Structures
1.
Amino acid sequence: MRMKTMTALALLCAAAAAGAQDQVPGQVRQCATNVEPRSVEFPWMSIERWNGINKDKTALAAKGDVDVLFLGDSITEGWPRSEWDSHFGNYKAANFGIGGDHTGNVLWRLQNGGMDRLRPKVVVLLIGTNNFGLCGEGPDQVYRGIASVVSSLRQIYPDAKILLNAVLPVEPNPDHPRRLNVVKVNRDVAKLDDGKHVFFRDYGRKFIQADGTISPRIMPDYLHLTEEGYRIWGDAMRPDIDRLIKQ
């Protein structure tokens, strides 16, 4: 599977972070459960480019033969080739992350991208941060969006195990409102773990230092991961994927 170069990813991450910071306080777009393709032009991701990437993902779905399906936004999309191969090269793994996606975009892709043809054993889901940063939604709305994606995955892949990632921490300061919103939504998302089909894991704790801050060595923009960050995430997820794929 073709992965983005780290240079291109760095540009995407920087632009995405700028876009999140440009969100007007109090301005909310209804994204959580609004099933839609990309409908907003961003300087770093035009609708035309999003449609092109989605077309590539649809072609990937048509090939089938996927045991571990990764689904999400730019954090999922951005796996460096070396870390991807190191952690998941022994699986039949496929990356369905698209930068800038919110839960409504993922819901649309699940219904319109031919993904129902797949029969993954494990789905690795990380979604929700763009509902905060690009849509201006609050924790309750973001939770509803994540819950809707999980529900759709259960319907499409009834035999799959869902490794539900907590929304990763953002902002260097642990008392920042955006960080606190992430903490709140994760408390609710954790309740979706049923111990049978859905398994919640908060790997974001591994990116937080003892004083509660986040090192730019791991998250240079306090949102996206460096190669070292992906290594930490991969090391944390691999045992859970190993266990779930054998169940």
Note: Residues 218 and 229 are 5 Å apart (CA to CA).
2.
Amino acid sequence: MPSTTRPPEVGEPLEPLPKEFAAFMRPELPGLMKEIGAEVTRAYPVYGRLLNGPNADAIRQGVEQALYAFVDRVADPGKNAALRDELLRRFGRVEAYEGRELDTLQGAYRLGARIALRRARAVGQQYRLSPTLILAFADALFAYVEELEQISREGYVEVQSRASSEVPAQRRRLLHLILTGPPLPQALSGLCEAAAWPLPADVTMVALRPPLPEHLQAGLAEDVLFDLDVPHPHLLVPGALTPERLTMLDAALAGSHAVMGLTVPLAQAADSVRWARRVLKLIDEGVVADAPVVRCEDHLVTLWLLSDPALVGHLAAAELAPIEQLPASRRDRLVETLRVHVSTRAPAEQVGEMLGVHAQTVRYRLRNLDALLGDRLADPDHRFALEATLRALHLLSRETGK
């Protein structure tokens, strides 16, 4: 008699993994993310470009969610994965906006799975796990990949289901392509024609902070491109922010917070939105003062000084090494005196007023600094490095509250 046992559905693993297996895999995830990122971008260079674009944070978050959700499911099969699902749909939308078939994304998913399986085998050898358990892991992993592909396909179909003549869909795709540059795609002119959007020489990007007002879209001028249904919503305004443009934006953005990027050539639009988003983050960190509308152009030095906080730490260690071993309270007093001294070039009396100490105290500290730093204060290169470092440290101290 033939068997009546029903075969498993597509995407359904043959056997559940024991919950304890999550404890073996979780410590491997940070290193696994880096390895997958390196191998996927080597195999699919298009994803390397996207990881250096304005949506890089969302892409990395999506990869992280996909990996951690798998391990979380092993530990707790009922755990909610709504954030993962939305980010994976976003991956599918990106593929549709850029005109690729889903084969590329599916190939990246499967390459990631092979790398994860390779790591699981190494973990299995390390902890002497049974071959049966590793086979169960492989089965569950590739079933999980099919699930990821299906969720991304939902986002892909969502975009493709819109009629090709639908102007809003064309304009959203156009905005996405502009922000992937440079170089700008050759098909951009044709897409501009299909979207009924004149190609400008210069643009100004605007980064928005959710939640967004319901009237926002209705208040925008006809030629403003926008993407409001993403984790980091943004606008593209053709040209500079003229008084008329600012009036329009003030009305449309009423009730929300935004950062106006720099006006740049079209090919640099991704830079403009990246800088604007960085200022939003600095606002959240308390470095830049909050306001309904903030302009990037008012914070260019801050953006430059804090473009790489980790590098600031190394520069500070090098430039301030002679005073690093002093007791913390004395070191802090000397550093603050040095910051005011090199940034103002003011006499001791004025520096003392700024610091709330006597001028003689300032002179005493400066003599100590001369003795500790030697020729650094007289050397133009070191003096510039010191001033930049001290300004950056002072900005970072606003974030930490020190």
Note: Residues 1-14 have pLDDT under 50 and may be disordered.
3.
Amino acid sequence: MRDAGPPDSTGSGPTAPETDAERRRRRAQFLRDLAEARALRARVQPRRAKAARLRHAMRMRTFRW
């Protein structure tokens, strides 16, 4: 899924703060992976996924703006 880029240096000494573009790119990748995982779960467990969709729809119907 992820390309093998340079390793992140999280927590290893002082580094320059990440730019907004880097943060948005990492967030977009995370959201793509999350959507892919949800789609896989829906394919593997269709009954549970359907029940989760129905629960979510009920929550949205009863939510007060």
Note: Residues 22-62 form one domain.
4.
Amino acid sequence: MTRIVAGSAGGRRLEVPVSGTRPTSERVREALFSRLEHLGVVDGARVLDLCAGSGALGLEAASRGAVEVALVDSAPGAVAACRRNARSLGLAGVRAVRASAAGYLAGVAGAPVDLVLIDPPYGMDAAGLGAILAPLTRAEDPWLAEASVVVVERAARSGEPEWPAGLRRFALKKYGETTVWFAEPDPDDG
């Protein structure tokens, strides 16, 4: 069973797509959001949850005070589950979008986001992840706010993501077979 850990929807259940997803464990989400709240990037944030699956990460952010959350996934079943979860939780400012993460990021960014959550399939190779990370730091119509945080969840055996110019890792945390990487904009490298 997957549930929201804390916030206004804390303890509420989430629907998980029947196949094709690997929801972030409750323990990892609890630790991740504790860190993000300590960094001050959740409350009032604009959030992108890429490769959203059930939407657990983005919905956790909304439950904890994010004001705008885009749940992006290419699988129709995942997007349907995201929409049902957002509706059942009654969290304002949440929308689900059917698109590949790279395809979504190729579009217009609009106002910069404060938090990007990326939990791609563990089998995604470095090139696939790079296609998601690279558009975040584009000079024209940027996705990232000046003090934003990018979180990438990967299998521990996958190794560190190849960060594009303009983005630098500032932390990592391991939870068993899962590694969570934290990055931020690097104005001196872009």
Note: The mean pLDDT is 92.
